[in-house]
Protein 1
Amino acid sequence: MTLSFDPDSLILPVGHFIGGQLLPAQGVLPMHRPSDEKAYADCPVANVDLVDQAVQTAKAALKTSNWGGVRPRERLNVLHRWADLIEQEAVTLARLEAISSTRPVGQLVSGDIAVSAEQIRFFAEFADKEGSDLVPTDDASLGMIMTEPYGVVGAITPWNFPINMAAWKLGPALAAGNAVVLKPSEMTPFSTLYLAELAVRAGMPAGLINIVLGDGMTTGNAMTGHPDIAKVSFTGSTRAGSAIMENIARTGIKPMTLELGGKSPQVVFADADIGKAAAAVTASIISNAGQACVAGSRLIVEKSAAAELIDAILVKMAAVTPGPTWDAESRYSPIISDRQRWRIDDIVKASVAAGAQCLTGGHFMDSEGYFYAPTLLTAVNQNSPAVIEEIFGPVLTLQTFEDEEEAMMLADHPSYGLAAGLFTGDLSRAIRLTRRLQAGTIWVNRYGRSRDHILPTGGYKQSGIGKDLGREAFQANRKSKSVLISL
């Protein structure tokens, strides 16, 4: 079966998924396909009452199924069956995601969807292996630290990697014994709805996963401010994360995990493998057209190696060709919306007006859809808009340095600290500078996540609070109590 498909022939699950079934709903938010700009569907918006229905359904499902109190192995088995179904239904999931998102269908089956199944299996294994601890006390007492699920977790996922981000939220929360009410982006909801359906087919008690569609102002605020949502997990922009924190503080106090924006540096020394560095640097800004929070958008290179590195990057950027996300041969992503494409262009033009030199790109691509050309800006300084702002597009800035101190000064961003890359052939330098880089994730002589799901991700500064992935994500979905018993 070919992965390519006719987007007009795809049947879309439009509605909310509550209590184990799709509840059809009238759409009110117009949706446009990024690959051809065509209006093709309307997304419904869950109001306060419908969000409350989803939360109460989740609470009831927790009680009737005793999901948090059953043998942990039972949760593990259900999650493994769910992962199996995700792999079996990968083509359907890929098409539902490709039609609305920036993700080419050819990259989804073996990439995002396979990784999502792996992550759910990874978190499933914590269910019967992580638990309470006995702690040392005197002979006359017994001390324990007991952990238990929060209850109902509220999750909000972004549009750039819809199914993968849903797995980040659902996997650890469910393995830890919680129920989840999840709001996907109103621009890319369809694969998440089908993901929830597969969970029920795998034996997940109906109501443990509820998907409500809508925007941040109405649906998101209703979720994060709901008194029965015990914990919030969000991935998205720093601005939206700040609004969520404000809404939570206004309506009550609850723990939260926030994976937010980034403006990540890639520091390249002259002793690095320049060819390898060029491939990693270019891939990080071309992948998903730079629409990733960890995109390595600030290239900081030792002056003596700059010319060689620039030449290699320009060759790779020139080879990029646009294509619709429903074509299995497409490799380069469109921008998610026309508004976002114009925002990217405005920042590039403002940077050029401030003195930056555009070596390539800096314009809309001559094709159908919201495509923006891979762009390389040089002659920028620390005050350039392209250096300061998270662009969320295929725009790479380049600065040069003479020594380590200057490199570290340029790498440090006043607001963000999500990820950083470091390329060098000197092991001592790599370890020394890894300690100095202010970011939650450091990649050395590579750039981008692997399938080592044990490594947590999360940011410093305004790039977030808490961790996704890793043991930390599972532990963040359980609360602890201290117990001291006199014997």
Note: The chain is about 40% helix and 20% strand.
Protein 2
Amino acid sequence: MSAGSQTTSVRPDIVVRVSKMKLDAMMDDFIKNSVLGRVLEGNKLITPQDIDEVISAEIPDEEVGPARYKAVFQFMMHGPCGAANPKCPCMSKGKCTKYYPKAFRDKTTVDDDGYALYGRRDTKRTVECNNILLNNSHVVPHHRGLLVKYQAHINVQWCNCSLSIKYMFKYIGKGQDTATFVLEKVGQQQTTTDQPSTSAQRDDFDEVTSYLSCRWDETESSSR
């Protein structure tokens, strides 16, 4: 396989390095360059106008900002889902679990629970995804500058209540990624029927628990 034909799935070493570089650069944008505003206690986006200066949930004009238009099209469109694609991963019991498509709104407002309802004007701008036309009701909220710079899905949300803060930090408690795999010794074959099977387990080894936890057990290794 040539270097040009490799995908990200076969080069996790490069993916991790690039991700760390992007993370460091983004933290500098937040802290040093104040991309989302000054990082100080009490410095908040208070009014809907303040929110609109940082967060967008609309498809930009392709003629005015072709780079922004392309980035939103590639990274920030949700769907198609719903009746157009009932097998979409976000679908459950016939409904989108992310509540798309969103309702059109002429301007940004804040509801009684403290959540921002971003402005999504019916501008008639559309992008085509899987032969389906998507409009502003399918745009994931984002910061256009960060989106164009990092060329990745970056969902930006306005957080101003305890429930929103819980959403931000819930991923910390999800645990580490796991994988199931098997280690086998090569070149050792059973020579007689009197020898025990190489796959035999100790009496006190719980194979079911080991499989469900997706962790390699050192005692299992020593028993082989």
Note: The first strand starts at residue 91 and ends at 92.
Protein 3
Amino acid sequence: MVGDSDAVVVRRIAELPDHFYQFLVEAAAEGFDTMSVLQDEWRDGCNRFERPGEILALATIRDEIAGIGGITQDFVDSSWLRMRRFYVRPAYRRRGVGRQIALYVLEHAKTFDRQIALYADGPEAEAFWPTLGFSPIERENTTHVFYRGP
């Protein structure tokens, strides 16, 4: 049985977390560049998740970094938002970490009433996003979209 001490805690962050290198090393070992791109864009200031509608969220379990993800303005159509830089460390997968981050970010995005796009990188991501209401779409640099209802 999972106790309260194993609860996923998600919060908005304004700086990359301590021990970010754990994301870098583990993502690179899996062949994902998303964390190194996040770090590079953060360092050069081109993407700090600060524009209207944007947010970067960190998930922890027992004060250990477990996952990260956010939402930015979409680079294909600036009237849309885009889920970006999602990564859950292998040791924390299948524990609801990615879902909790996504729900936190989607809740933040609600008030902006914009379509939300994403690019699912790999079969696990392609299977995951529809469970949150995203639908496949044929669009440049995009695999799924979340349509806000009326």
Note: Residues 4-117 form a domain with the Aminopeptidase fold (CATH 3.40.630.30).
